[in-house]
Amino acid sequence: MVPRPYTPDAVVTAPAAPGDPHVALSEAVRAGRHAEADALAARQEEAAVRAFGPASGEALHWAEVRADLAMFAGDPARSCRAWLAVAGVRLAAGQAPDTPAVEAAVDRAHHQWGSIKDTARARELGPALAELRLRVPGRRRGALENVQRHLRQLQAG
Q1: pLDDT tens-digit map of 16-59
Q2: Which of 10, 97, 119 is nearest to 62 (CA)?
Q3: What is the Cα–Cα distance from 63 to 42, expressed in whole angstroms?
Q4: Can you give the pTM of this predicted structure?
Q5: Torsion angle in degrees (nearest 10) through CA of 31, 36, 78, 42
Q6: What residues contact residue 25 under an 8 Å CB cut-off, 6+ apart?
Q7: Please, are residues 59 and 53 in contact by the beta-carbon 8 Å criterion?
């Protein structure tokens, strides 16, 4: 199966194609069965990695789906970590820092990081995000400075 272009809404607005795992994911998310949705997406991701490799479009699609599933489940730390991993895989595969998919992954990681309420978890993920922002500054001015400032506040507090 060739994945559709990825958007967060694809997780919850999947078309009703027979056998499409996105349908089951959508139903699980709408019903609040977030662990079930993540387990299904994890199986899809593992199968895609085995079949096509970790940097394949299929595997990255499922990694992105899992990142958004974490967001829907109210777990911004897990979502941030997943988006950081997606960006890392894309960069390691040779995608340029200004590639839209790389920028989007870093921007989403940044957004999720800003939503983490647990100071220790935010402190843990902040350095990885700051390092990634050095490589992928994104289109918004001041993104790296924002991470560095917030990280200093977390470390001081």
Answers
A1: 566 789 999 999 999 999 999 999 999 999 999 999 999 999 99
A2: 10
A3: 8
A4: 0.87
A5: -140
A6: 11, 14, 37, 40, 41, 65, 69
A7: yes
